[in-house]
Amino acid sequence: MTPKQQLESFIDKFTPQVAAQTRSAFAWMRRKFPGATVLVYDNFTALAIGFGPNDRASEAVFSLAVFPQWVSLFFLQGAALPDPHRRLTGGGKQVRHIKLVPLELLQDPQVVALLDAEAKRLGLAVSSGRGKIVIKSISAAQRPRRPAAARKSR
Q: Which pTM does this prediction carry?
């Protein structure tokens, strides 16, 4: 399987609604940062799809985290990012996020301004070309990717 096919199989584990939201958010981020390297972690708690300048996780700038009922956009160094409109949530020392409910928040001018500022600050160039997809890890044990009600009706 190619890395793209593997990513698709990870997304397919979610409900059709969350899978569609994930694919839309992923496509939007790929258009916004076409040269970014995509780092994929099919973790215990969530599917994480990172975007960075190379395949080093420590240099990733953003990630989409896919949970059973929603998708969140994470700013991996977001605590240092000026956020005058208070769009970012989280209280840790480093990471901030935006729960993409509704998904259209990804296109909100305030969110786009945060993405642009963070990409510039951390060196994620808006370049041409197509960055590669790298499957970094697949957890053997995973929480269910669908809410209990969706698992029963499946």
A: 0.91
